[in-house]
Amino acid sequence: MTTGTPVSRPTVTPTALTKGFWEAAARGELVVQRCSCGQLRHYPQPMCPTCHSVEWEWVPLSGRGSVFSFTVSYKAFHPAWTGRVPYAVVAVELEEGVRMMSDLPAEDTDAVAIGAPVEVFFDPQPDGLTLPRFRLVRGR
Ligand code: ZN
Questions:
Q1: Can you give the pTM of this predicted structure?
Q2: CB burial of residue 67 (10 Å; 0-12, 13-18, 19+)
Q3: What is the mean pLDDT of residues 58-82?
Q4: How far does the centroid of ligand 1 lie from the alpha carbon of residue 47, in Å?
Q5: For the chain, which terminus, N or C, has the lower number of CB atoms within 10 Å?
Q6: How far apart are CA 80 and CA 20, in angstroms?
Q7: Which domain holds residue 135?
Q8: Does the residue 106 lie in any domain?
Q9: Is residue 79 domain-shared with residue 140, that is, in the same domain?
Q10: Cα(51) to centroid of ligand 1, in Å?
Q11: Looking at residue 66, what is its pLDDT?
């Protein structure tokens, strides 16, 4: 049991390669790399795993997709999740075919299912980073 100031979730320090992803998230835009061959990829990588080109650009995605897979954690593996268990961690397959990982908001834990529609939302963190996260789309 913890008391006092809530602990923030761990985040990352943007690098030269990932900076564009985080800057887009801060603007409320979800982007991934598109290689000169047309292949979309995430996480950011310096070279295309398909054609080995190092030419790429950031392109925006719809932010809509579905749950490809998930797990529900009943243990807080970091103090930031103390008091938030159980919570769902999902692999999202975006409409454009790229997959991303996210935890879901607490209210989505009981309703998570493979194939459930999700949408991105942008979650500003105390350290200044904005995390793209996903939530279930209800009432479709
Ligand atoms: Zn390529």
A1: 0.91
A2: buried
A3: 96
A4: 8
A5: N
A6: 26
A7: 62-140
A8: yes
A9: yes
A10: 4
A11: 98
* Per-residue pLDDT reduced to its tens digit, 72-113: 999 999 999 988 999 999 999 999 999 999 999 999 999 999
User: Both 85 and 113 in a single domain?
Assistant: yes
What pLDDT shows up at residue 3? 55
**CA of residue 91 to ligand 1 center, whole Å:** 23
| Residue 47 maps to a domain | yes
Q: How many domains are contained in the chain?
A: 2
Query: Ligand 1 centre and the CA of 52: distance in Å?
Result: 6
Instruction: Work out whether strand 40-41 and strand 31-35 pair parallel, antiparallel, or are unpaired.
Output: antiparallel
Q: How confident is the model at residue 138 (pLDDT cuts 50, 70, 90)?
A: confident
User: Do residue 44 and residue 71 come from a single domain?
Assistant: no
* CATH code (residue 140): 2.40.50.840
Between the CA of 61 and the centroid of ligand 1 the distance, in Å, is 18
CA of 31 to the centre of ligand 1 (A): 17
